[in-house]
Amino acid sequence: MKIIDGTIASPLGFSADGLHAGFKKKKLDFGWIVSEVPASVAGVYTTNKVIAAPLLVTKASIQKSQKLQAIVVNSGVANSCTGQQGLDAAYEMQRLTAQKLKIEPDLVGLASTGVIGEQLPMDALKNGLSQILVSGKAEDFAEAILTTDTCTKTCVVTEEFGSELVTMAGVAKGSGMIHPNMATMLAFITCDANISSVTLQKVLSQHVETTFNQITVDGDTSTNDMVLVMANGCQQNEEILPDTEEFEKFSKMLRYLMADLAKKIAKDGEGATKLIEVNVRHAKDERSGRMIAKSVVASSLVKTAIFGQDPNWGRILAAIGYAGADVSVDNIDILIEGIPVMQASSPVAFDSEETRDAMAGELLTLTIDLHDGDSEAQAWGCDLSYDYVKINALYRT
Amino acid sequence: MKIIDGTIASPLGFSADGLHAGFKKKKLDFGWIVSEVPASVAGVYTTNKVIAAPLLVTKASIQKSQKLQAIVVNSGVANSCTGQQGLDAAYEMQRLTAQKLKIEPDLVGLASTGVIGEQLPMDALKNGLSQILVSGKAEDFAEAILTTDTCTKTCVVTEEFGSELVTMAGVAKGSGMIHPNMATMLAFITCDANISSVTLQKVLSQHVETTFNQITVDGDTSTNDMVLVMANGCQQNEEILPDTEEFEKFSKMLRYLMADLAKKIAKDGEGATKLIEVNVRHAKDERSGRMIAKSVVASSLVKTAIFGQDPNWGRILAAIGYAGADVSVDNIDILIEGIPVMQASSPVAFDSEETRDAMAGELLTLTIDLHDGDSEAQAWGCDLSYDYVKINALYRT
């Protein structure tokens, strides 16, 4: 597998673009991805009981068509908690896109991100849709889906499948609340491999547990979260089937890309100054390990301590204890940036100043050895800073 | 029921005091409550798997003796994550207290709060224990158990039981992380009523679900949380038995006192500028209602919005949706300080400036009507401010 520079349109047969349509004041706020042919598709959606209109429409369409040929996204307005009017607007967004691209409406996926409770401005939408071109400036797509993210988040990898070089590309936008109104995590992944929707969904669902579901910025699950993967088969490789060597290769590619985007989202969490990576070793089972890793990275106390470069292992141990996981808490080692700060669940002497200095970087790694089994797990998050409070306490203006 | 001024030693037959023993630099850091006679006792303890030594000792002793005659508390050092040495120290603390008071060790309850992972300084402990007097300055007890709480938390009520006037008193210390190392919520309740330990435990366990378990400051469950109730029967009323009118009266008293202390803890959360009260109406059942109320009051986004006086109902709806409760999300009304901001799960027009002004007070009430059943629930918390980050990010010095 090779990591390359590229865009969401790097895989064969995809085009993408972004522009300013009028959902926001000035910034790019409307983007699309189009495949030359209907692509196999897989999706995962928010677990929030309150689900935004574009997700309801996309999920229903994918269930019907089992394929997708285009994804249209606006930022600035989330079209969430907007009742029947919002649902009608989402269907109109889908219908108008399909008309423009001369494809079936059920082949169009939708996503919105931004302020909750505001209706989609139809003028901006029509303005955006009128400009859809099948080949565009694909790097602008990554920018058009952002809200208050501070940077675009892209990852592109290639891998040989027989004589074909398959390319897979992903773009994501951040968690954090972004507009001080609503968090949304969106990720779109394109690939030119030949793989069925059923197989694609299997791989996506498997890896989402250990990647996107293992990041947290503030513990608030959005109404708009969604990950969509399209594979259009334009590379004409032999179909990738489950339980084959090719499948494992494909799975590894997708896992790498998802983990990379997840980490980029965590690192760009609102107000964040550091990416925190928690590595849990020797957990009783994988699920317990994941629960513990996520509990630690989600703790407000751990997050503030790391912001303050305080090697406060007591807070880490407390977060392990309340994770709700099946774990024995009598023989735990904790290392901060490789420096042992707790051994066998008891204090050990360590140089506070040296440890503090080691915590100064942009990546902070916590290692937790539970000595309780053979499973491993990871989670990613960010520190909790003054700026998080500032961004989210500001009155909407 | 009457609410009166008083101390933890207001009920008949109790004495209490607090002093500086040397666990902290200057402030009061050692306190005790002593009953003239062994008292019926009930306790609830942290659900964290990591449990501090004093809790382990107290729980075991209460199981054996079913009575308690004294509670000794130090602040400054939590005696948590201190291994065998910490457990030995806790047993020594219990043994020395018993020796001084000439009672059985199993009649002595212990609590510690403060820094995690540090051993109990035995010199300070012996210094404190040497000064135990059976009658003391009881108001100092409420101060001696504090860490970075900004105020003492006391509540005293009286009620007639036949011809006897029963007094019940409670003292608590705050959640928040206090020393930037460990949160601890402690509450001690004394009463001169005649009631068995079994009956007392029943009432305590029932009310803890709707009071102390419904508050949150930062979602981190401490290793030292504990609530202990002692009833010494000195008022010589007829024994209070379950399923009687007297029992209901006693239950109501205890519930009032527990809710009052819980709210005082929430209000004094680290960095808090406001007490937030969430009232859930028409929930499917009580448990769902409680989960929803607590999810809303625990949301970092709701907390920061309230700090910024932003009537951001979308965040409230999102927190209802991810509460994990059994709830229909299609017909929800939300009121902020009595002003409707969402009706039937759709936006309604409201005056933002007026609402913002209404949010300026020290108490902020959110009302959520689920139109989904007949149950009600409440939860309390505080806003999330710059000072929370400041208090918890500061390097321990």
UniProtKB/TrEMBL annotation, chains A, B:
UniProt-annotated catalytic positions: 184 (nucleophile)
Entry's localization field: Cytoplasm
CDD domains membership: OAT (cd02152)
Marked site positions, Involved in the stabilization of negative charge on the oxyanion by the formation of the oxyanion hole: 113-114
Gene Ontology molecular-function annotations: L-glutamate N-acetyltransferase activity; L-glutamate N-acetyltransferase activity, acting on acetyl-L-ornithine as donor
Pathway in which the depicted protein is active: Amino-acid biosynthesis; L-arginine biosynthesis; N(2)-acetyl-L-ornithine from L-glutamate: step 1/4; Amino-acid biosynthesis; L-arginine biosynthesis; L-ornithine and N-acetyl-L-glutamate from L-glutamate and N(2)-acetyl-L-ornithine (cyclic): step 1/1
One Gene Ontology cellular component annotation held by this UniProt entry: cytoplasm
GO annotation, biological process: L-arginine biosynthetic process; ornithine biosynthetic process
Binding-site positions, substrate: 147, 173, 184, 270, 392, 397
Principal location class: cytoplasm
Transmembrane segments: none
Job description of the protein: Catalyzes two activities which are involved in the cyclic version of arginine biosynthesis: the synthesis of N-acetylglutamate from glutamate and acetyl-CoA as the acetyl donor, and of ornithine by transacetylation between N(2)-acetylornithine and glutamate.
Name of protein: Arginine biosynthesis bifunctional protein ArgJ
Species of the source: Streptococcus gordonii (strain Challis / ATCC 35105 / BCRC 15272 / CH1 / DL1 / V288)
Taxonomic lineage: Bacteria, Bacillati, Bacillota, Bacilli, Lactobacillales
